[in-house]
Amino acid sequence: MVPERAIFDLFQCFEGLGGDEESHQGAGSEHELRMMPGDPQDERRLHARVPIHGRCWCESKNVTLYVQMSNISEEGLFIKTATPLEIGSCATIRLVLPETNAEVEARGEVVWTRRHREEGSLPPGMGLHFVELRQEFRDKLKNYLDTIMD
Hints:
6-stranded antiparallel β-barrel; 18% helix; disordered N terminus
């Protein structure tokens, strides 16, 4: 059974309204890794992630970020930022795939964040799951990923 809150968040994501930020606040420290289903530890991934070098635009309800991408798959991407959006927030992602110059636009939901980088640890940022990706963009992304993984 899916919790009512998850249905509400998904509905808001598709409607482009964002989430109720207070409901996503964690009680832990800023060093806490906060995750939801689809987190980086989840071994149920259907698609391999590949490194990607370049920047993308990430536009949410009240903020626009121009951020470094770290890895991407057919399901989503990880972007490096010291100021990740709240879990459950939705954003429009615009990027150009390296080497192909193919433009991709998607709607994504923040499914996990890493708030702080400690010495020797992984960079802060956020994982976004694509919730809306038109077929033409999906095809461009799949072609890029197939080329990289060959």
